[in-house]
Amino acid sequence: MPGGHQQLGGPERSIGLIGCGLIGTPIVRALQRGELPGWKLGAVLARSKRRLDDLDVLDDADSFFSQPFDLIVEAAGPDAVRDHGVRALGVANVWSVSGTALADPELLARLEQAGAESNHRFRLVSGAISGLDGVAALSVAHDAAVHATIDLVPQGDQTAVVFEGTVAEAAVRYPHHVNVTVATALAGLGIDRTSVTIRQPKAGDPHTLTVEAESRDGSLQATTLPVVSPSDGIHIVASSLLAALRRENQIIWVG
Question: Which terminal Cβ of the chain has fewer Cβ within 10 Å, N or C?
């Protein structure tokens, strides 16, 4: 166990997982190997029914949601939040890495209403971006400013800026690429007051995600260089979920 932290006792809590691809599969396997103390795998919902190791992956939402869960983790993308987020909040607390979905004000209102009615909460896990705790702290001041710079997957023979504007605008134009910028915005000033630059780096350049925040209380710059195709097969977004699940059951924890 990283850090050697002592874990809470008590019965294991059941996780329902939506998505079983690049992000979801490492979570399934960590649970199967007993690497997440305090958690057990209840069921997995995906677009297609199949076997993963010795697990039956469901494709029927009614079967999935008929089971009792203590937590539902969404790892399938913004469409999964739109399709299942409200229903999931009626069952359990929900963790998601698909911030772009929350840029839709109508969906955001429906999720908030569902959470208010069920007394469950929707947590947007930071995923591939760093520094969101600092963004939240600096955004308390009335003069705060927050800006993110994100790269698309490197390709081509030159680097170009393809977008500059608000996170709200970026979420419409690049719905599958700005989950981390929506998370940055919601951690601080909101999607209309947070600006973003989107770059298309040339092939061979690092894939870079940067967040900058400044207020009368100080300033922050945090840069992450996620590996697009990690050698161990575990994407940094999956790692962020694994870390959050481990931290949730630690007696002494940070964050």
Answer: C
